[in-house]
Write a structure and sequence with these properties.
alpha+beta; Alpha-Beta Plaits; 4 helices
Length: about 190
């Protein structure tokens, strides 16, 4: 499993209705994309309390083939054409869990980035994070949750989809989910990735 996200930060006065329309008319195009576990079409809006207006889709890929087909194919080229080439962040998947609200359509998402402390052995830190992730994924309102790591920056990433339109406070950066494409969600499996 690979996690991937790019963030397109937009001007403070940007009409976010443009992004909503883009997702409404084009979001379904990835509803059956080979190799895609799920794509959450995410936004943050200043008028809703975010520090920025942002379009920030989040992906879980079952393997690198689907991710590569997307990045080098026509889908991502539309993003590049319309917004310029964003930095594509990616993480190696550690765990995926379906939550207690797994049948719900997600309304919100949260993302937490957690630096791995240098004084703690990486294997120990990841083992602790996996235990915490399994517990957190069982909370009320969780649709699905993923844990991943960036070994270049020694950073853990926790990403959670929530059933409610508002994510709980204190869970990290909060996003609204405009659409969820999930053609390979069942194929992501659950639990640890090794």
């Amino acid at each position: 499993m690979h996690a991937m996200q790019y963030e397109i930060t937009l001007p403070a006065d940007y009409d976010m209705g443009i992004i909503r329309e883009r997702v409404a008319t084009k979001g379904h195009l990835l509803d059956d994309f080979p190799g895609l576990g799920l794509k959450a079409y995410l936004i943050r809006e200043r008028e809703a309390g975010s520090p920025v207006n942002q379009y920030a889709p989040f992906y879980l890929w079952s393997g690198h083939e689907g991710m590569n087909a997307f990045l080098w194919g026509p889908g991502f080229q539309g993003i590049v054409r319309d917004f310029g080439r964003p930095v594509v962040q990616h993480w190696t998947g550690l765990s995926y869990e379906e939550g207690s609200a797994s049948q719900a359509v997600p309304g919100a998402a949260t993302r937490r980035r957690i630096p791995l402390q240098e004084e703690v052995p990486p294997g120990e830190a990841v083992a602790d994070a996996l235990d915490r992730h399994a517990r957190e994924a069982r909370r009320d309102g969780v649709v699905a949750s993923a844990l991943a790591v960036d070994p270049r920056h020694w950073e853990l990433l926790s990403f959670t989809l929530w059933a409610d339109a508002e994510a709980p406070a204190g869970e990290g950066e909060r996003f609204r989910v405009l659409h969820l494409s999930a053609p390979g969600r069942k194929g992501l499996g659950t639990g640890r990735r090794w």
